[in-house]
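FIELD: query
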Amino acid sequence: MHDVDYYTSGKAATDTKKGLLWLKFIKYPFIGSAIAKKLLAGAREFEPEVLDITEASKLIQQSKRCAVGERVCRIIHKNSEITESVFLDELAEGMVNAGKARYVPVEDAIDILKKYSNNHPLILSHISKKPIEICCSSIENCIYWNMQRSNLRVFRKKREK
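FIELD: result
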């Protein structure tokens, strides 16, 4: 099970980069299915789900603190469009302490998501069943979207409203 240190240490970016590399091999017989299972298990630990701005706003308003910083896949794909992630509660604190994010008021965090959400689907990730990151994803670069395109269904079903 991952924790805040997984993000703050840079391991999340390293593992995402490795995952994108391994994803290229899932089409090969025998080895491909083993790789696919491993990738799915790793991704599903974060229980990723696509949110709309209303759902994301509620989560931000319910959080104790929030911070904004560079999305994980942007670290890997330096030439991709700049968008930001919103980090919640313990991850917000950890990312700020690591110098990878800045605290922002709730309204600013929501405005940042609104700014990007028309062209960049919002993805919620969890650690220990708690919502911790809302990413303005890059469909071309995101490990989750790349897995979906490879027929690896990683996104959690929509939550009940």
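FIELD: remark
The longest strand covers residues 130-136.
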